[in-house]
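thought: fold this chain, then report.
action: predict
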Amino acid sequence: MKPTTRKEEIIFQASQLFKEKGFSAVTMRDIAQLMGMKAASLYNHIEGKQEILSILILDLAKGFTSGMREIEQMKISPLQKIEKLIELHIDITVNQSEALASLNNDWMHLEDQDLEEFVRMREDYEEHFRNIIKEGISVGQIQPRHPEVILFSILSTLRTLYLWYQKRGKLDVNILKRDMVAVLLRGII
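observation:
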């Protein structure tokens, strides 16, 4: 998504630096330098690094949450819901990899209510995903394996997809969706 305001541009450029160096290593001066402006001028648009991190992570978490709600309400089987969730992760990875890097690597730097809100959204998301898996097991669409192992296997792969995807020359997203769904849900044998 292309930034349209100065604030969005600052957040986008900061997300690049956060992905590259990590939140703790980036200063407002670094962001200002990348933007070609003085650090003091940044504060006309943004309160500080914490605001940038909160916007990046919470907006993305809200995207996952709303995507989950939409998929849960679909009149499709549990297995099809899991396929849709995998595709949701792939779409977010392809379109927002910098924010996803912050979500995965820097969430613990959120403060107070932002941290609480993020942890709550993550736990709720995982619980909804777990319930879809359990439903799939109960109706015989998914092999009777431990739901936590299934959840961990799928989410750990999807959470690190942004690292692999950047290195692989941006594989066609449709091929990625087709093959990722097939491997995660049907295995390799």
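thought: worth noting. The CA atoms of residues 99 and 173 lie 18 Å apart.
final: tokens above.
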